[in-house]
Design goal:
Helices cover about 30% and strands about 25% of the residues. A 4-stranded mixed β-sheet has the order 22-23-1-24. The protein is α/β, with parallel strands linked by helices.
Length: about 425
C-alpha cells in the first residue's frame, strides 16, 4: 500500500497546471451511455475514480479508452452495450457509480445498479434518485442490495427533491434528456460541474435551459448523438493547492484554473491574509507571514464547499487566532481531526462544529488518511510540520488528485511516494 513521506518546513514557489474536474468527468463519462455514437472527452484527469468508471463502462460492453497520444482524452463508444448493469464489485469503491442509473434506464429501458458501498437508503440522497425516476414513470424495486429499474420510456415530470443533491440532479438531468415531454427539476444543485454536464448534453442534441440555477427545464428528444467536449478545471484541486501555499508560505501561479468557480474559498483566503490575483484561466496567490484564523460554514454551491473543509481546517491549524468550522453537508466529515491532532493541532469537535485554536507550528508524525479530502488536509499538515510526516492509505488521495506529489515537488515540496 503506497504512502507519502513528507519532510516539512519548505516554502513553495512556482506554477501548477490544474487537471480536469473529477466531479465533472464522472457524470460525463456516464452520459456517453445515452447515445450509440462516439463521445470524446478532453481534459479527463488521471484518477482512480476515472479508471473505475472506465472499467464499469467496459464491463457493460462499451469501448472506453484513453488516447495514447493525448492521455487526457478519452473516447467512449456505447453502441455495443449488452449488459445495462453495474455490479457491486465495481460500485463498492465509488458512490458516483450510481450515475449510470439514469442514462441506462433512459436509453435501454432497464437498469440493474448496485447500491453504492456503505450506503443506506434514506441517510444519503440515493433515495432522491429513485423518487425522481419513479415520478418519470419508472418501476423501481430494491432487492438484495441492487436497484432494479424498468421503464418502456420515461415521461417528463416536475420533480422537487427533498434536499439539494448533486448526483441526484445529474442523474435526473441525464435521464430527462430522452424522456417523453418536459421535465422540470426544482431545487436543483448549482455546482459548476452541473452546467458543464448540461453543456455536454446540449452538444449531444439535448434541449436544456436553466442549468446553473435551482430550476432546470429539459425537453426530451428521441435520440442523442456523439460529440467532443472539454471538461472544466477541478475547483477542489485548485483550492487544495491554494491552501497548501497559504499554509507553507510562498507564491503560486495556477494555470487552467477558474477563479469564478471558487469565489467563497478565495474570499476566505483573502480574509486569512493572502494576496490573490485572478484572470480568466489563472489564479496567483502570495503568502507572506503567518495566516490569520478564519471561521467558515460549509453549504451548497455557491457557498463554501464541503470538499474544501478539511484542507482549510489544516490552514487554520497553524493560523494566528481561533476559528470555528461548521459542517452542514456530511455527518462524518471530521474524521481528519484526530489525525491533525496527531500532528500537534489544537482542535475540539462539538457535534457539527470544530473549534480550532491555531498553534505556531505542527510536528511530523505518522498519520492515516480516512477519505479523499481528509488525505489532502494531512498532506498540507505534513508540508508545514517540522520533521517527517508519513501519510498512510493514500489510495484515498489517488481517487481525486492527479499526481499530487509530483505537482507539489515541482513547486519545491520535499515529498515522495513510497511503494
Amino acid at each position: 500500500m503506497d504512502k507519502l513521506l513528507i519532510r516539512g518546513g519548505r516554502r513553495l514557489h512556482g506554477e501548477i497546471a490544474i487537471a480536469g474536474a473529477k466531479n465533472a468527468a464522472l457524470p460525463e463519462l456516464c452520459a456517453a451511455l445515452l447515445t450509440a455514437e462516439p463521445v470524446t472527452l478532453e481534459n479527463v484527469p488521471r484518477l482512480q475514480d476515472v479508471a473505475t468508471t472506465l472499467k464499469l463502462l467496459r464491463n457493460m460492453g462499451a469501448r472506453a479508452e484513453r488516447s495514447e497520444a493525448a492521455p487526457e482524452t478519452v473516447a467512449i463508444d456505447a453502441s455495443g452495450v449488452t449488459s445495462p448493469e453495474a455490479p457491486y464489485d465495481l460500485v463498492k469503491t465509488m458512490r458516483a457509480s450510481i450515475l449510470v442509473l439514469g442514462p441506462l434506464l433512459a436509453r435501454f429501458g432497464e437498469a440493474t445498479v448496485s447500491l453504492p458501498g456503505g450506503c443506506a437508503i434514506g441517510s444519503r440522497p440515493v433515495d432522491q434518485h429513485i423518487k425522481g425516476l419513479q415520478a418519470m414513470g419508472a418501476e423501481i424495486t430494491v432487492e438484495h442490495g441492487y436497484i432494479l429499474a424498468k421503464a418502456k420510456r420515461l415521461k417528463g415530470a416536475r420533480i422537487t427533491t427533498d434536499m439539494v443533491t448533486v448526483t441526484g440532479t445529474e442523474n435526473l438531468l441525464m435521464a430527462a434528456t430522452l424522456a417523453e415531454g418536459e421535465t422540470i427539476l426544482e431545487n436543483a444543485a448549482q455546482e459548476p460541474e452541473i452546467p458543464d454536464l448540461a453543456e455536454l448534453l446540449i452538444k449531444m442534441g439535448a434541449r436544456i435551459a436553466g442549468h446553473g440555477t435551482h430550476r432546470i427545464r429539459i425537453q426530451g428528444v428521441e435520440r442523442l448523438h456523439g460529440t467532443t467536449h472539454r471538461i472544466v478545471p477541478d475547483r477542489i484541486e485548485t483550492g487544495t493547492f491554494l491552501c497548501a501555499v497559504a499554509a507553507t508560505g510562498g507564491e503560486l501561479l495556477l494555470r487552467d484554473a477558474r477563479a469564478d468557480h471558487l469565489d467563497a474559498v478565495l474570499e476566505k483566503l483573502r480574509e486569512a491574509g493572502m494576496a490573490i490575483e485572478t484572470g480568466s484561466d489563472w489564479i496567483r496567490l502570495k503568502s507572506s507571514g503567518r495566516p490569520k484564523a478564519v471561521s467558515f460554514r460549509t453549504s451548497e454551491y455557491p457557498a463554501f464547499p464541503t470538499d474544501m473543509q478539511a484542507q482549510f481546517m489544516a490552514l487554520d491549524c497553524i493560523a494566528e487566532g481561533a476559528s470555528k468550522v461548521t459542517e452542514t453537508i456530511f455527518e462524518n466529515r471530521f474524521m481528519h481531526v484526530n489525525e491533525l491532532v496527531r500532528l500537534g493541532a489544537n482542535i475540539v469537535v462539538d457535534g457539527h462544529t470544530a473549534l480550532v485554536q491555531g498553534v505556531p507550528k505542527l510536528s511530523g508524525a505518522t498519520v492515516m488518511a480516512t477519505d479523499l479530502r481528509a488525505s489532502a488536509s494531512l498532506v498540507i499538515g505534513g508540508l508545514v510540520a517540522d520533521g517527517q510526516t508519513l501519510v498512510d492509505r493514500i489510495y484515498h488521495l489517488d481517487r481525486g488528485y492527479d499526481r499530487m506529489e509530483a505537482k507539489l515537488r515541482g513547486i519545491g515540496a520535499d515529498i515522495e511516494r513510497i511503494k
